[in-house]
């Protein structure tokens, strides 16, 4: 089942343009008690089919490593869990500034059971405020502040695939405004119709 959720907040307001969009979806899931797995896909990521198949196995909260292109696009950075089987025992990170984060994971490097949002008793979570993303957190801390609302620690997480041994998600950090296209690749006007639909 697919649902299209409209966000009425302007995407230019928060530091992270996706915060209000994700919160609109979280509110919808909570209000309608939608049962399933919540995963925040990103438009500048590449995913394997295996990742989506693995999401189906998540019981509570699943996480996996995400490979990212470095800012200069000349090397890859790995961020996410270090696992012993499916147990999360540590974190991959190479950014000194991010060592202050509790959980070192990309926004598209985790998924969770939707009932965590609307059935806190099932998960032994005290019901207080709704679980939402905050648009007031420092850049780079969006993921960890969200996850801290969902789980208490790594014991409530499961590494996806034994040993978190596969890269199933690449974050490319593409910004179309900075892409330089080879001459002739950029179209000045729309293509003409070559085959009309009858």
TrEMBL record:
Enzyme class (EC, first level): transferase
Membrane topology: Single-pass type II membrane protein
A cellular-component GO term for this protein: Golgi membrane
Family membership: Belongs to the glycosyltransferase 43 family.
Active site: 143
Swiss-Prot/TrEMBL site (Interaction with galactose moiety of substrate glycoprotein) positions: 79
GO BP, sorted A to Z: cell wall organization; glucuronoxylan biosynthetic process; plant-type secondary cell wall biogenesis
Keyword field contains Transmembrane: yes
Subcellular locations according to the entry: Golgi apparatus membrane
Names of required cofactors: Mn(2+)
Protein name (record): Glycosyltransferases
Enzyme Commission number: 2.4.-.-
Domain of life where this protein originates: Eukaryota
Function recorded in the entry: Involved in the synthesis of glucuronoxylan hemicellulose in secondary cell walls.
Single GO MF annotation: xylosyltransferase activity
InterPro entries to which the protein is assigned, alphabetical: Glyco_trans_43, Nucleotide-diphossugar_trans
Entry keywords, A to Z: Cell wall biogenesis/degradation, Glycoprotein, Golgi apparatus, Manganese, Membrane, Metal-binding, Signal-anchor, Transferase, Transmembrane, Transmembrane helix
Coiled coil (residue ranges): none
Binding positions for Mn(2+) per the UniProt entry: 44
């Amino acid at each position: 089942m697919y649902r299209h959720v409209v966000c009425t907040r302007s995407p230019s307001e928060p530091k992270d343009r996706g915060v209000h969009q994700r919160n609109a979806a979280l509110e919808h899931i909570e209000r309608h008690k939608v049962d399933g797995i919540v995963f925040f896909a990103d438009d500048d990521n590449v995913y394997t089919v295996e990742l989506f198949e693995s999401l189906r196995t998540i019981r509570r909260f699943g996480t996996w490593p995400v490979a990212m292109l470095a800012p200069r696009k000349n090397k890859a950075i790995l961020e996410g869990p270090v696992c012993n089987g499916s147990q999360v025992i540590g974190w991959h990170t190479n950014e000194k500034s991010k060592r202050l984060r509790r959980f070192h994971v990309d926004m598209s490097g985790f998924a969770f059971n939707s009932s965590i949002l609307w059935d806190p008793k099932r998960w032994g979570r005290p019901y207080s405020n709704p679980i939402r993303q905050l648009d007031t957190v420092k850049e780079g801390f969006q993921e960890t502040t969200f996850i801290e609302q969902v789980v208490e620690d790594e014991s409530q997480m499961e590494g996806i695939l034994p040993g978190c041994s596969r890269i199933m998600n690449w974050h490319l950090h593409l910004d179309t405004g900075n892409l330089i296209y080879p001459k002739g690749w950029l179209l000045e006007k729309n293509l003409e119709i070559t085959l009309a639909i009858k």
